[in-house]
Amino acid sequence: MKLDTSGLESFVPLSAPIDDLCPDLSAPPTFDLPRSADFDGFQKDAIQMVKPAKGTTTLAFIFKEGVMVAADSRASMGGYISSQTVKKIIEINPYMIGTMAGGAADCQFWHRNLGIKCRLHELANKRRISVAGASKLLANILYSYRGMGLSVGTMIAGWDETGPGLYYVDSEGGRLKGTRFSVGSGSPYAYGVLDNGYRYDMSVEEAAELARRAIYHATFRDAASGGVASVYYVGPSGWKKLSGDDVGELHFRYYPVAPSPTEQEMAEVSPA
Amino acid sequence: MALSRDWMYENNGGTCVAIAGADYCVVAADTRLSIGYSIYTRDYSKICNLAEKCVLASSGFQGDIKALQKNLAARHLIYQHQHNKQMSCPAMAQLLSNTLYFKRFFPYYAFNVLGGLDNEGKGCVFTYDAVGSYERVGYSAQGSGSTLVMPILDNQLKTPSPLLLPARDAVTPLSEADAVDMVKDVFASATERDIYTGDKLEIVILNASGVRREFIDLRKD
């Protein structure tokens, strides 16, 4: 039975748009495409000009107590650091978070869109969406835009009825279930530390410290990663931000400077 | 790039800066409009009043920026008719982000800085890239002179990152008069080293008592 909801519309729809310059603003927005003979060439040029912010290190892993998610906070446009305070861990809803790697605008927009879809699912089905379901929604959307130049490398981490869940989803349309992932330009460095220190039966504090160290080491060696290392924990009662530390300060915490005895002190020269 | 038959953009240059304070927001932009090595006009405002407590400054391709401003103004008018109130600055910030992203495959060549007061009266500045990724910050610069201006602002205004835990306040402790002086200094410096910045500086100051506008001359060479 289809309900007649036309009475709920609060505006009179305008007549059909005359041309591109006065679109129907009350209609749901759609993606404008350029009328160009060479779509791919245009996208390649446009993306150079638009300079989206990329370069990152994010990681997530499942352990005995739940899921640990961590990321840096640097956004770089070519060689310029456009921001050191980017929120790369996006809160989709109180029990699911997503990480951002690749194009910042792409990740922000599609995660916001995913949050809306998850909420609609809850309202329609009277139960929370599973992590597998949410990641599938996102993967299907990204697959439909495959080849159009979106750049998204995200991990969806959450806790649902089946326990902790972690999926990697990217803009090529790939979706992988797994227990340990790291995404971004700094991921090789993070994998080195993460794989070395990982054990399934860690406590929350140990896992947080492992995640923090992995991000720190990635920011140390990768020029495109830096800023603040944020660590989130997803448990049975939802996600919780555990820490946010400036990686510059973490460096001196992990490798404190030992005061070296001076061998020969220069005497102060008094003004003549 | 501009020579290919279907290249549809131009860069008109210019710099935009915004600084958020505890109870004010300063948004400033130069007024030079250039194409290539020519100056087309010395008197072009890059700043647009979107809402009572919300001001947009954009640099890039002014044709796209004009269309973007008209689009946002129309959406704001519809919002006012539907909700009987002005849009708040954070709401406008998300609207701008979505508007930019919906042209993801044919982008607005606009580098935006949105400044205003949030619902509590505190200053807020949102900075964007051309396809809509945005972030609330304490200060920002966009445009041709942004790489010259941001290091000075970082040096003078750097506040603790909002991502740190335990959280620390991210709004600059400067007074309104000091922030306006800082903006004037910063543009004077940018004008020295960026060919696309100069002529005149337009400063818009928003605070609890309303909106104020100032014009300062810059080097015309």
Automatic annotation (TrEMBL), chain A:
Cellular localization per UniProt: Cytoplasm; Nucleus
Name the record gives this protein: Proteasome subunit beta
UniProt keyword annotation of Nucleus present: yes
One Pfam match: Proteasome
One GO MF term: threonine-type endopeptidase activity
Subunit record text: Component of the proteasome complex. The 26S proteasome consists of a 20S proteasome core and two 19S regulatory subunits. The 20S proteasome core is composed of 28 subunits that are arranged in four stacked rings, resulting in a barrel-shaped structure. The two end rings are each formed by seven alpha subunits, and the two central rings are each formed by seven beta subunits. The catalytic chamber with the active sites is on the inside of the barrel.
Transmembrane stretches, start-end: none
GO CC terms, sorted: cytoplasm; nucleus; proteasome core complex
Similarity annotation: Belongs to the peptidase T1B family.
Keywords: Cytoplasm, Hydrolase, Nucleus, Protease, Proteasome, Threonine protease, Zymogen
Reactions it catalyzes: Cleavage of peptide bonds with very broad specificity
Predominant cellular place of this UniProt entry's protein: cytoplasm
Lineage summary: Eukaryota, Viridiplantae, Streptophyta, Embryophyta, Tracheophyta
Functional description taken from the UniProt entry: Component of the proteasome, a multicatalytic proteinase complex which is characterized by its ability to cleave peptides with Arg, Phe, Tyr, Leu, and Glu adjacent to the leaving group at neutral or slightly basic pH. The proteasome has an ATP-dependent proteolytic activity. The proteasome is a multicatalytic proteinase complex which is characterized by its ability to cleave peptides with Arg, Phe, Tyr, Leu, and Glu adjacent to the leaving group at neutral or slightly basic pH. The proteasome has an ATP-dependent proteolytic activity.
Active site: T56 (nucleophile)
From TrEMBL, chain B:
UniProt cross-references to SUPFAM superfamilies, sorted A to Z: N-terminal nucleophile aminohydrolases (Ntn hydrolases)
CDD domains: proteasome_beta_type_1 (cd03757)
Keyword annotations from UniProtKB, A to Z: Cytoplasm, Nucleus, Proteasome
Main localization (coarse): cytoplasm
PROSITE patterns per UniProt: PROTEASOME_BETA_1 (PS00854), PROTEASOME_BETA_2 (PS51476)
GO biological process per UniProt: proteolysis involved in protein catabolic process
Compartmental location: Cytoplasm; Nucleus
One Pfam family recorded for the sequence: Proteasome
GO CC terms: cytoplasm; nucleus; proteasome core complex
PANTHER family: METALLOPROTEASE TLDD, PROTEASOME SUBUNIT BETA TYPE-1
Subunit and partners: The 26S proteasome consists of a 20S proteasome core and two 19S regulatory subunits. The 20S proteasome core is composed of 28 subunits that are arranged in four stacked rings, resulting in a barrel-shaped structure. The two end rings are each formed by seven alpha subunits, and the two central rings are each formed by seven beta subunits. The catalytic chamber with the active sites is on the inside of the barrel. Component of the proteasome complex.
Protein name: Proteasome subunit beta
Lineage: Eukaryota, Viridiplantae, Streptophyta, Embryophyta, Tracheophyta
